[in-house]
Amino acid sequence: MRPATLRLPSSAILYGLIVFIAAVLRFWNLTEIPRTLWVDESWFGLRGRDVIRGIDLLPLREPTSLGVGNSPFQIYASGFVQALGVPAAYSSRAASALTGWLTVVILYPALLILFKNLLPATQRVGAALIGAVVTTTLFAGLHYSRDGGQNAACTFATVGVFASLHSTFERSSPKWAIATGVALAVALSTYEAAAALVIAVIAYAGARLLWPADQPRSRILLLGAITLGAALLAYSPLLVFYLRRPEVYFLHFTQTQTAKDGALTTFIAEALAGLWKVWAGVSLSGDVMPGRNLAGRPLFGPISSILLWLGIIAVVWRMRRLPAAQLLLIWIGVMSLPSALSDAPPAFPRMLPMAPGLAAFAGMGAAAVWQTVSHRGRQARWAVGALLALGLIADGFSSIRAYFVEWANDPRLFDARYAGARLTADNALALAATDDVFITTQSQEFVRMQFDLLLGGASVKTFDAAPDCLPFANNSSRATDYGIILVFDRSSLAALKAAYPTGMETATVMHPDGYPYSLFLQVPPHTLAPSPTHTINVEFDGGLRLMGYDLITDAHPGSDVALKLYWEAASGLPGGLIAFVHIGKGANSQPLIAQMDAPLCPGFDSSEWQAGYRYIETRHLALAADSPPDAYDIRIGVYDPTLGARLNILSANVPTENNRAQIANLDVR
CB count, 10 Å around CB of 480? Predict the structure, then answer.
């Protein structure tokens, strides 16, 4: 009597359903869940935009000390989806979703190939489908295929490498060896965790040498050499680049690895401790970082974990000498190393490449369970089949709920994923539909890239506020909104409120801890900017105008003089203009008792100035301690460093000489 087999509806229908569900889970409401735009996806979106615009075809560099990943694959994938019409702000996220979905698409046929000599035909189909189901609903798989990072691409490439590596030796094919090498080179361009794939290829070739089956060992060595040679050749352009600029590759690598220094014994001890945490993280307690996981949630759910460990036991116990079984064990063993050697294991971003291999073992575990009950009665088989289905559905539902409900609404994401920058930029874009909008501060590393990406091409003006300089709307026909990130900028709000008593606070982004992260101060139309105590009129080339100043006149040797300058401009000023202030006597300013050369309104370059605004800056000049008490004068000019010359003064109602305007006298006592 033939043993009962697991009868399934058409595998093609089930596979199509899995692929459809994977697409829905990875693309549904992609720009809003979570409503953040963190540094990595901003970085890749910006670099992809550079490629599309032809600004930089290989834009590899470390942007900041944050150590953002530098995946060429993710950069080009972001550029590719931008070329298809995806907004740049969400292009890296869309690219991750696409590669995450493709991982599910290729995993089922890949597992069918790997299971060919491990399982009977019908059980092979069921096991491969279960592996695909587990991967489709895995929390980490959902997370990292929606977050705009490079991890999903690394996982996708990993599946391709192991599937083609198996075919290389199974078919004894140099063509497949070349394909494996190319796949390995592609994988190495995704994420530094893919470096473990080189070890995996060597380990599998070594296993084949120990257990060669019917293949000559010389053939195994040849196939391994072709694979690594093809990988080296395909990767050589990037390798040449990294050899010239190793810091681009190694900065992120060294920032995320443990045991950078110290004795070998220390390294081994930390590596073993990391391995324990990684494997405990599979089923017991996972990544505790709120930005990387729902803190502490294991990689696999309870039912899929049971199947996973049953599958590992079955493979080690009965199939360990079979090449496909050895490949699967090498997959999950070697690909656990990147996380084990990281500075915070279990790190799910670096565990993700091992997840499809683990899912394959879950499929093997389900097959082992079915083999156990296959000779029993129909009711037992139906009961076991129903329990397996319900258990996997429960695990999947738990993962989906954990991602879309619990994690997406976790208040800790606000800081972990820099949600404040995204929400502030969203408010700025909404206000810009009717108002003029300024937003500060753009150079903070936690918001700069998000602002560059979200606000690029919009009418919103970003700048770096400084206590001594702000642009003030002057009798504008539209309302003007000033966005201030209060956690970085503690001076602008008070200065703006003092200048515009009628201004209203609006569009506040609240931190989950209960304080305002940012807010916008709305200035009504036709509100006048602050006016100077002393009104003058000095017209420079290009439409720049100095229309007044405030001066603290109580001066003595060694004291500071505060000079507030009121500038206005027509559109189209040159960038990088430098204003200089000289305090001295006469046309030669001799003796020169104070001098200050600095950019006009630092933080808001002169090329961004436009009509309808008053740019008010305060300059603090330290008088020389040995300044003789006397009557001095203050002279001001503007220097254009690109021309290497002072701007010409076209007209002035104060004395001028050598393109300097004498705006005031100063008595030093």
Answer: 27
- The CA distance from 174 to 264, in Å, is 38
> Which CATH code, of 3.30.930.10, 3.40.50.920, 1.10.10.10, 2.70.50.60, is assigned to 536-668?
2.70.50.60
H or E stretch including 266?
helix 264-283
Q: Which sequence spans correspond to the domains of the chain? A: 11-29+36-407, 418-523, 536-668
Report the distance separating Cα 332 and Cα 312, nearest Å.
10
Q: Are 144 and 399 in contact (CB under 8 A)?
A: no
- Do the Cβ atoms of 580 and 617 come closer than 8 Å? no
pLDDT bracket for residue 484 (50, 70, 90): very high
pLDDT at 4: 46
Burial 184-221 (b: 16+ CB within 10 A, else e): bbbbbbbbbbbebbbebbebbbebbeeeeeebeeeebe
Interval 446-482: pLDDT, tens: 788 899 899 988 899 888 877 678 889 999 999 999 9
Residue-level pLDDT at 256: 65
Contact (CB, 8 A) for 273 and 280: no
Q: What is the DSSP string of 613-629?
A: EEEEEEEEEEPPTTPPS
Between CA 198 and CA 335 the distance in angstroms is 10
Q: What does the pLDDT look like over 417-439, one tens digit per residue?
A: 889 999 999 999 999 999 999 99
Q: Tell me the CATH architecture of domain 418-523.
A: 3-Layer(aba) Sandwich (3.40)
